[in-house]
Design goal:
4-stranded antiparallel β-sheet; 8 strands; 306 residues; 7 helices; alpha+beta; elongated
């Protein structure tokens, strides 16, 4: 009926019928290119993400939602999470990543709810560049931590220097005490007053010795804290690198979750689940599973280019 209607219009305009065929092809060719599967779903609804050229596509699905608008928002958020999981970037907006909606497919269920599929896209080159910048930022933070440890060590050295100054003051106090003893002998008639003064100075020296002892104890505590920090830092770095190296060395596509856990151990963290897909994180390395089978690995640059 549509072609007949278009034929009448073009005939009235004295345009050959072949033009109708041409225009119809132009109008409907994009719809044909986005052909659906046998159950009328576009091909991309069966995927979670895929790459074409330098464009990364991600699919979000919101099932059995009450309104179309709610479903669109939920599907967009899930598709965005796919991109975040792919790039290991928690804040795409902060990284300057632009996300656009390529297409939306909506279907109504018998119970009145809706299933919403949303296809979004982003520039893969910019995404990988932002990922690299984020890794560089993490490296800078690690360097800052090392600087803090060095500063803490410098403070400890300062306490040691202060201890030397206090010891010098103690020696001077001893010299003063000796001079007072000479004065006591030469002025015997005022012995009682000098005895009181001598006793007071002895208490001051003892008080100083107590202060010195406390400072030495504080120094020991700071030394132990510094050693603990250095050991903790080394352990953290060794644990992260050891797991990342094991992932690169032993994990390959096709392994099961049990294979991975038996080789590497339990993951440091587990990413969000999307249907039959999940991610395990070992340090900065990421293992991607589909139906509990390894499908991909993401390794830090330092391991990718040894």
């Amino acid at each position: 009926m549509f072609l007949a209607y278009m034929k009448n219009i073009f005939c009235n305009l004295k345009i050959p019928f072949l033009s109708i065929i041409f225009v119809s092809t132009i109008l409907f060719f994009p719809l044909l290119c986005l052909s659906a599967t046998e159950d009328n779903h576009p091909f991309w609804t069966e995927k979670s993400s895929f790459i074409e050229g330098n464009i990364l596509y991600a699919v979000g699905v919101a099932s059995n939602v009450k309104t179309v608008e709610t479903g669109r928002e939920s599907a967009f958020a899930k598709a965005k999470a796919e991109i975040m999981n792919y790039a290991q970037i928690a804040n795409l907006d902060g990284a300057g990543i632009i996300i656009e909606t390529q297409m939306t497919y909506e279907e109504k269920n018998k119970d009145g709810t809706y299933n919403i599929y949303r296809l979004i896209k982003t520039d893969l080159d910019k995404l990988l560049s932002a990922q690299k910048d984020l890794q560089n930022t993490s490296q800078k933070k690690m360097e800052e931590m090392i600087k803090i440890i060095e500063i803490n060590k410098a403070i400890t050295d300062g306490f040691i220097n202060k201890r030397g100054e206090i010891e010098d003051l103690t020696k001077k106090g001893g010299q003063i005490l000796s001079e007072l003893e000479k004065i006591k002998k030469s002025v015997s008639e005022k012995g009682a007053e000098f005895d009181a003064l001598y006793s007071r100075l002895q208490k001051e020296v003892e008080s100083r010795n107590i202060v010195i002892s406390k400072i030495e104890e504080k120094k020991k505590i700071l030394d132990r804290q510094n050693e603990s920090l250095e050991q903790l830092h080394k352990q953290i770095i060794e644990r992260i690198l050891n797991k990342e190296i094991k992932v690169k060395k032993y994990i390959t596509k096709g392994m099961t979750e049990e294979d991975v856990e038996s080789l590497i151990g339990k993951p440091d963290s587990v990413g969000p689940y999307y249907g039959n897909q999940k991610t395990w994180h070992y340090g900065r390395a990421t293992v991607y599973f589909t139906n509990e089978i390894v499908t991909d690995l993401s390794l830090p640059n330092v391991l990718m280019n040894p």
